[in-house]
């Protein structure tokens, strides 16, 4: 608030010359922080009533004999709307959380994570007649990064989900894990509809969706903004390359945890 802004403004004015910058930047930062907090609070508050609506509808739909004719259709529509809202709220909450950074990082084995995800998505890809390949580079080095497993899972799941969504039947999807001296790369490629060059810079914007994907069911346009936020919070990057009508490749780069750093954590000299 205002009180919190005063010391910073005084400080920069004392430094001389920068007082105007301080006056302008500090309130903008404050506003952004308050907005982020608001998004986090609002999503949290919205989640419980939405879950109540959704679960009540689910129960009503499950026992149709207790309903009047025509009620079932209404409940199905309510449940569908509630499910969409709940997803949106969960996504907003996740987005707000990525802005908080990683509080207590834990070791995450990316090879283990991509194997799990590939196994989870296999039934979906089979159903859509998509080939799903998992390629883990032969490497003696570890696939360990430092961060939050739930968030990294969400990042990669969003990329795989999109690959499935935007690839017509008969196409293929590849998940590749490779290593560079300081970074671990996870690439999710597809042979799908692709993204035109003019759209490519916007794919990570909040709520952005290509014109033709707007008409499709589902999808809020938040998935890639969340994925990007998670990569950044982990000190990494996420970028996209695409050839329209041929496919897209999303590349995540995350700082690898080196042996020396791990020893350092246990009391050794480390880095
Ligand atoms: P959503 O998938 O919910 O629409 P995203 O933020 O995940 O939102 O993606 C934003 C948009 O980027 C999508 O609507 C789509 O237009 C485009 N996009 C994302 N991934 C792909 C992909 N693998 N192939 C083609 N277009 C994609």
Automatic annotation (TrEMBL):
What GO molecular-function term can you cite, just one?
ATP binding
Q: Say where the protein is mainly found.
A: membrane
Its UniProt entry gives the catalysed reaction(s) as:
ATP + protein L-histidine = ADP + protein N-phospho-L-histidine
Report the EC number(s), separated by commas if there are several: 2.7.13.3
| Ranges annotated as spanning the membrane | 1-25
Where is this chain's protein located in or outside the cell?
A: Membrane
Q: Which residues form a coiled coil?
A: none
Q: What class of enzyme is it?
A: transferase
**Ranges where the Histidine kinase domain occurs:** 41-258
Residue stretches of biased makeup (Gly residues): 265-271
Q: Does the keyword Repeat apply?
A: no
Gene Ontology CC terms: membrane
Highest taxon in the source lineage:
Bacteria
UniProt keyword annotations, A-Z? ATP-binding, Kinase, Membrane, Nucleotide-binding, Phosphoprotein, Transferase, Transmembrane, Transmembrane helix, Two-component regulatory system
Query: Region labeled Disordered — which residues?
Result: 255-271
Q: Does the keyword Cell inner membrane apply?
A: no
Protein name in UniProt: histidine kinase
Q: What is the lineage of its organism?
A: Bacteria, Bacillati, Cyanobacteriota, Cyanophyceae, Gloeobacterales
Whole-protein coverage range:
162 to 432 of 436
């Amino acid at each position: 608030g205002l009180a919190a802004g005063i010391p910073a403004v005084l400080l920069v004015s004392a430094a001389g010359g920068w007082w105007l910058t301080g006056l302008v930047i500090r309130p903008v930062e404050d506003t952004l922080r308050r907005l982020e907090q608001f998004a986090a609070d609002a999503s949290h508050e919205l989640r419980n009533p939405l879950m109540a609506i959704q679960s009540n509808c689910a129960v009503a739909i499950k026992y149709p004999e207790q309903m009047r004719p025509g009620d079932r259709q209404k409940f199905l529509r309510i449940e569908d709307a509630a499910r969409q809202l709940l997803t949106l709220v969960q996504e907003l909450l996740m987005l707000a959380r990525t802005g908080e950074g990683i509080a207590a990082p834990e070791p995450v084995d990316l090879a283990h994570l991509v194997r799990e995800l590939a196994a989870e998505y296999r039934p979906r890809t089979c159903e859509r007649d998509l080939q799903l390949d998992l390629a883990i580079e032969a490497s003696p080095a570890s696939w360990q990064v430092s961060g939050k497993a739930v968030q990294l899972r969400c990042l990669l799941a969003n990329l795989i989900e999109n690959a499935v969504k935007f690839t017509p039947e008969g196409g293929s999807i590849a998940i590749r894990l490779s290593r560079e001296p300081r970074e671990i790369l996870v690439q999710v490629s597809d042979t799908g509809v692709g993204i035109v060059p003019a759209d490519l810079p916007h794919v990570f914007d909040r709520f952005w969706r290509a014109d033709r994907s707007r008409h499709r069911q589902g999808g809020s346009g938040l998935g890639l903004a969340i994925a990007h936020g998670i990569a950044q919070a982990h000190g990494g990057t996420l970028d996209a390359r695409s050839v329209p009508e041929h496919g897209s490749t999303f590349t995540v780069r995350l700082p690898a945890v080196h042996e020396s750093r791990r020893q350092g954590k246990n009391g050794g000299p480390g880095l």
